[in-house]
Each structure stands twice: as structure tokens, then as C-alpha cells.
Please model this.
Amino acid sequence: EAWMRDHFGAFRYKNDDYYLPQLDLLIEDLHDENVLVSENRKALLVIDPVIYVRPADLPIPSPLAERGLQSASSTAHRSPLTAHLSSLNIASQRGLGEMFDGSVGAGTVLWPFGGKHQITPPDAMVAKLPLLEGDTDVCTHMAWGFDPDLSEQSPFHGAVYAVTESVCKIVASGARLSDIRLTLQEYFPKLGTDPKRWGQPFAALLGAFHAQHSLRLAAIGGKDSMSGSFNDLDVPPTLVSFALAPGKASLALSPEFKKRGSTVSLVTVPRDADNLPDFEFLKQTAEALHQLNQDGKLLSLHHIGKPGLAAALAKSCFGNRIGFQEGSAGVPSASLHSESYFTFLLEHEPVAADCIRQALPGIQEIGQTTADPTLVLNGETHDLTTLQSAWESTLEPVYPTKPEEVEDRGSKIVDADSGLFQIRNRHASIAAPKVLIPAFPGTNSEYDSAKAFREAGADPEILVFRNLTAKHIEESLTAMAEKIRQSQILMFPGGFSAGDEPDGSAKFIATIIRNPRVADAIMDLLKNRDGLILGICNGFQALIKTGLVPYGELRESTADSPTLVHNTIGRHISRYAHTRVTS
Model:
């Protein structure tokens, strides 16, 4: 910020956006990570800049300081820890992750953002095996490893670390190291006739093999590409390791701190003179961690990796707003903001300390969790709200988690008309009501919906609505109408029909509902047989569009009809939400 001011007369006016008064130019999202300055402090290279002339309808910006404001990355917040958390490679990616539904299939074990506040990212994806009937404790773990900076310096070390990091993440999520299998994804510059270029993939593969051989783990799949060049631009030597393992959902571990007053410890795998991990020590440590987890001694577990200890502690605090207080011996200051590969952060009950020390002789207690929402490191107290703001602010302009303030256009809530559907609460004598679940193109929750009904004592049936040809559509309409007349409950499932747009998916399903044969069967179900209709996600959108909600009958839409609109953030939000039944 000071460099931009001194050399260009530019100033920060919003988040990481700058204004150049002399040229009336705006520069968006200018971080330390995408600006290169030469040694003589004169040359400036901005990577992927977004620079444009200020639009005429945009007022001339004023500096944040003049408005008494400060961004999360301004100097007022730029302590070493907040600066570290806001760096691009460590910053929160929640705004991006929430665009993708983490609950599809109803088998998710570790949510993409953990803790009560859904903030802390886990080390690995963990999900139960899908079953049409019954339940299982069997799950699968999947994690990845790759450090582009290290791989650029040494493809051999980059591959060793990629494989080992992915393995450590799987171990941290609760699986057994010996159960892991790997798949490797490679991407290198065009090789041509330069021997040095040919040496890059060879060195990387040697590194991956060295790690696999030392850990006794096989790679059972992979893909490679040698086309990562465009003119004089080359991708860094890339070998990404994906690790997968079976496990038990009941043993899955996540990084966020679980309890106040628990002990926090570190266990580190040593490295040799060539900066390679002691694989035998890692295997012994992984087995000890797995046994401790089986014995119920661990509350949370996290592989620290490149972000370093301070960032790992902060992220572990965020999920449940549980603080951390360093112990009397302090914490290893050298690893606070530097990489800590092959180091595990453990949370455990104080009474389990002796047992854990016996299993892990090299473990180091570094502090305890607290009820106070602060992080105390090296005698400095950091407020969790400030740290979280710094961590989330970097990508907020790109992948927002909060909607922008919108102008109040005079919208108001009005009472619906008096024709609302009235539930009659008639008691049916059917022991196992039949439930029809039509599966439309793009819906994806019919199996777990049927499973939920079955476990509640109903008799569900999934009807696939075929639309490949006009004949298929006609047959599907006839079958759907007949099945509705044989059922007591009609359930429209959710998914991503027609891209899951508020209009798109609703229009397709609503068109089917309005078909005369289907519409007659639905009204017979509601009016004459006191049936029930449930709609979730896409299904709920269709119920709104057809008038079934809130009127209980099919109606044509008017200007005053209820409808669903885009949310204020303008994207899909995948988060758990608390709901309550009000009527």
C-alpha cells in the first residue's frame, strides 16, 4: 500500500481496490501476492490485473483513512498473524466452497466447513458409502497434496511432499495409513528436446516412487499431461497426489477444537539432511494416532502443512469459537508462520495426557483451549473476530460470503388471500402409506428421500420420468397419473433440474404437474383422498409455481402470486440452517 502511494500516488479506497487519481484509473484486488517489485524498487509487474477507467456514474473514491474506515488488510490489522492469514494461499475459500452442495446423497460425514459456525475446513473429504437400504458405518476418505513453490524448486521434493502430505491429511481425518491408496495427476511443460525439461517429470516420478516405496503404498490410477506450455509461459512441474482410504464414520476426525479446557499438543515427524521425512517414524506415528483415536483419546486432529502453526491454531479456533492459550513453555516460534509439513496438531482431554505421551514419546504440549474467544501466542492476544475477518477478507470481493447492501425499493410483506389450503388432519387407517417419488432429469435426491420414507414406515416407489422422445414423455405422464392415484403421498425431490435456477427447474416440473392427467390425479389425492404432497428444493419451487403452495390447488400465476427469487448474494449457498415448524 505504501509502495503504491509513494510511486504512483495511488490509494486504497475499498478492500484491496486502488484508485490512481492522475489517470482516473481503478485497480481491483491488488494483493501482495500478485505484485512483483524489482530489486531496484522501480519496476512493477502486476499479475492478472483488473484495471479500468473510472465509469462516469461512479463517484471519485476517497481514501479509507479519510473516511475513518479500514479494510481487514489495512495497516491497522496487519500484524504478522493477520497478514499471514489474509495471504492468498491461506485465505478462506468458503465463498467458493459454498457454491457446491456438500449434502448430496445424504452421506456427508465431514462438512466442508466444520464446527457450529461452519467455518473450519477439514483435512479430507469423508462420506459414507451410499446404500439404498439400511445404514453403515463404512466411509471413504479423500485428500490431496501439492506445493507448487516447492515443486518449482525441486520436482523430486515436490512429489515426495505431495504424496506424504496427502497421506498425512488422510491420517488426520481418522483413517489408517496402511489402508491408503493413491492416484497421481501430473502436468508438465512441453518437453521438446531440452534434457532439463525431460528431467522434470523424471525427477517428480522418482520422488513419488520414493515416498510410495517408503510408505508401502500403491498408486492405482493417475493421469499425465506434457502440454503445459504457451509461447514462453510454462506451468510449474506439477504432481498432485490424491490419497483415498476406507474407514469408519464413527472414527472420523476434524480440525476444529471441540471443548474448552482441553490440551493442545504437537507431534512432528523429523526430516533428514536432505529435508526428506523419516518415513518409519511417520508410519509409527500414524499407527499410534489411529489407535488413540479408536480408544477415544483424541478430540480433534489436524495436519498443519504449509500454512504453519499459527494459521492452524486460528482455523481450529474459528469453527466453534473456542480460544487458545499457549502454555508456560510457549510455542515453537520458528514454525508459527513457516511451513510445518508432517506435523500434527492434537486436541485431547488433560486426563489422557499420560496415555498419549506413552504412545507418542516425542509429543509436545503447547497450550490449552479456552472459553475466551482469543488466540494467545508469544505473549500477544489476538481477537478471533479480527483474525477471522482478515482470513475471510482476501477472497470476499471475488467469492462473497455476505451480500452487498442493496437499495430499499419499497418492497413490503403483504398478507396472502384467504384461499390458503387448510389441513384437515384426517387420520388414515393405512399402516404403510405408499409414497410416489418422481425422478425428473437433473434431480438427485430420490434415493435418499425414498430411504428416509422407508425408515419412517412408508412404502416408497421411484418413478423415472423419461423425456428422450415424445413417446417416452407420453408414457411417463400416463404412468405418473396412475401411480399418484395409487399413492397416499406424492413427494417431489430436489437436485439440479434445469441448472437449479428458480425459474428453470420449476418450469419443467410445473409443466408436468399441469398436464391434465397428472393435475386431475393430484387434485383427487388432495381433495378426495386427503393425501399429502411434499416438495424439497426443486420440488418446492414447483409447488410454489403451480399454486399448490400455499393454496392447495393448481392455479395460474398472476402478478400477485407468491414466487421464489434469487437471494441477495446471487449464488447457491450450501450451509446447514436451523428451521422451526410454525404452523
